[in-house]
Amino acid sequence: MEFNLGKRFHYLNIRFFPGTWQTDYGQPFVGQINQPYSGNLPLLAINQELHGRPFKQQQEILTQCVEELVNQKILVTSVLVMRILKKLDSINSVAEMAKATRISSRHLQRCLKRETGFTPHDFLKIMRLQRSLSSSDLDQYFDQAHFIRSFRSATGRTPSKFYDEFDV
Predict the structure, then answer these.
(1) Phi, psi for residue 91 in degrees, rounded to 5
(2) Residue 106: predicted pLDDT
(3) Largest pairwise CA distance in the chain
(4) How many domains does the chain have?
(5) pLDDT mean across residues, the chain
């Protein structure tokens, strides 16, 4: 979900792992810039509730929101994704991912695609990119060009254009 917050803003988010979101993928969760949110979730009300509150209260509001999404079964824990995440640091290929999850590569392909919407290879690329965005750990990329290609593939922008556009 992207909201145009202008050039200066305080950023607060909840990052869900692929496969946790179990609702209609047709809802507009990407590309919400310069257009109103038209989904069924109370995102705008939550945003208004968060505005101007201290961080601790914001954290409590977001925790309640996530708990409600879990109760409604919109968010679920994927056992397969959790197995992969536990061993992510040692996984460098689809074959290693299959070995870590103790299922065949073909079965992994089917299950991961069904649960997350991603192939194992794409899932691995997404998790690497998320990890690099969470820290300064870029060592999983061969070189700068590799990182830039992965970033552009995920966001539609190069890192420099992303940082210029969102002033982060």
Answers:
(1) -100, 120
(2) 96
(3) 50
(4) 2
(5) 78
Kindly state whether residues 58 and 97 are assigned to the same domain. Answer: no
Same domain, 72 and 113: no
In a shared domain, residues 71 and 96: no
Reported as a single tens digit per residue, the pLDDT across 40-73 is 888 888 888 988 888 889 889 999 999 998 898 8
Q: What is the pLDDT of residue 25?
A: 47
Q: Tokens standing for 98?
A: 């299959």
In whole angstroms, give the CA distance from residue 21 to residue 76.
7
Q: Are residues 58 and 121 in the same domain?
A: no
Q: What is the share, in percent, of the chain residues with pLDDT greater than 90?
A: 23
Among the listed residues 69, 49, 48, the one whose alpha carbon sits nearest the alpha carbon of residue 57: 49
Nearest Cα neighbor of 76 from 19, 5, 31, 125 is 19
Spatial distance between the Cα atoms of 53 and 41, rounded to a whole number of angstroms: 21
